[in-house]
Amino acid sequence: xxxxDYEQERQDxxxxxxxxxxxxxxxxxxxxxxxxxxxxxKTQGVLTDAEFEAEKRKLxxx
Length: 62
Hints:
The protein is an all-alpha fold.
């Protein structure tokens, strides 16, 4: 994923954990999937440590 793809994903709300699902299990599954994606981006060097931590914090606080 390129920096441009990452920025588009952020603008499209791809990293937001907001979900219309009412099942807490579905919400948790979505958060785990997003966290894994963030981890991949950090590993690939697309995200800095600070960006990763900020996105992770937003995800976990929602």
